[in-house]
Amino acid sequence: MNRRIGLAGAVVLVLAALFAANIVAGRVLRPVRLDLTEGKQFTLTSGSKSIARSPAEPIDLTLYYSSKAAAGDPFTQAFAKRVREMLEEFARVSGGKVRVAFVDPEPFSEEEDKAMEAGVQPMQLQNGGRLYFGLVGTNSIDTREVIPQLNPAKERLLEYDIARMLSSLTKPEKPVIGWIGSLQLEGGYRIDHLSRQPVPTRIFQSILDLKSAYTVKRVAADAASIPDDIDILLVVHPKGVSETTQYAIDQFVLGGGRLLLFLDPLCEADNEDRFAEPSQKASNLPRLLHAWGVDMPEGQIVGDQDMAIRVMSNAGGQQEAVPFVVWLEANTERGLNRQDAVAGQVSRINLASAGSLHPYKPAEGAPARVAAIQPVIATTDRAGFVPADSLGIQADPKKIYAEFVPGKEVLTLAARLTGEVDTAFPDGPPKNADGSPAADAATQLKQSKGPINAMVFADADMLTDRMWMQDFGGLKMKLADNGDLLFACADNFSGSDDLIQVRARQETARPFTKVREIQRLAEQKYQAESVRIDTEIKETAQRISDLQRDRGGDATGSLLLSPEQQKELEGLRTKLVEARKRNREVAFNLRKDVEDLGVTLKLVNIALVPAAVVAVAVVVWGLRARERRRPA
Q1: Which residue, 19, 238, 384, 422, has fewest beta-carbon neighbours within 10 Å?
Q2: How many helices and strands, by DSSP H and E, does the chain display?
């Protein structure tokens, strides 16, 4: 009895000691921080730390969070704790320049009124209550930045969103975006191919969205210099841009200007001449790219079966959805670099007939200094090339699919360029028509003042409305996040260099992709078989038509089938029956593979894991029982 009491007392003393040690450690060791998480989830990047220390005057951040309304929602509660810790970390490293306040707006309280007045939008709960969960930032001149609703699904971008808010409050002026290009981004007129009359064109929705937060103005296509008030230069499909303007772009980038460059080996939106050759719808700036250590091969379109967008095709005499290997969808599973602060903000991007970006390898020598190429959008490792000339005026998706040969490497579709580089005009400014220099050689920058900030996209069609949205009688519906991507690029580049360096956090969830992989492989097999069958049908039908035309008809004018033709027809019918049988077998095998995987997972979860736990428990019990039986 005394032994049991003594053991119980010892347990109580140990628990009390642990409890006391925890309290002491929580207070004494509070400034001590050790982040052992994968990807350093609780450690601010160097860019965020610099932004937090940069304000000349204090910035106030207020987190409005309805703690009682969130009771019973562990996901929101966990994210709220994460937000609070992140804000405290910003305040800690700022040295007092960032002040953080936490407000719990109770229903019908003064705090609730302040939250609504500040712009925080409540989330309606099923029980009729309202959950406030937003962040408001203000500076000394009453400039306000608001995140109306903090979304747990965007936890990965939490640090970037806070850093962006601080950067914007530190520099509240509205940034200016200048654009150059051969596409009518802000609307205009085009010549109708049939009537030959001018037809008005609408402003790109992506540009319209930019105008809500930025000053957007056009720069002349033959500009000899970029205006000093331009913060970000947007160059879209620069077809036929003169060397003088290229020099202006070169000097703008070397001087610290931010560049968003959209090139295209085949711009489908370039409809100046419907019957123009593919090479006439291409845009490239090899002189600038090569100086930065980048190359975009001309006449080569990137294809990828795994990322292909399905389009409707009439091949084979009936409409069906088939993968168009040169129209690509980059998403969170494949294509988008989730570690990039721009690509990390979007979920789906559609591209059309895009090119690829590679490190530049000149025949002789190499640029003295080149930029680092950080992929933003990329293909899978099964991407390949399709000659631009093979697309023609009206491309056949099924034929392109059948002839497509996958490669073995990942291709970069869009990239961020950083690093110090030299000018693309080492011999001085280009000459005018009269032989005079287009700019003052004495003021030319021979090398960048610091690391350049540029993003290059090997596709310009991605900015057009048809690639990411549909208009149903005035009701616009998003199909992808292309417009959001452009806005995120501008948002990223409009901040300081430190904000550009802030990366998106790693995904904490690891999605289960085995079933999707099985479906994808089976679908590719099915589609390839379907393409071959359609080709056989077309060829056989053409042979029958040729034979019938040669023989003609009888006296009544009706067409006759010769024995040869009859044999051809029977062969065609046999092929159709066999094709349908093969299609059913492929579909059956697809379901069978997925179902077998499901059965295996159920067996592991329901039987093997519990059995393993029981086995370990039995072994531990056996070892302890043997110890008890062992004589002292």
Answers
A1: 19
A2: 14, 24
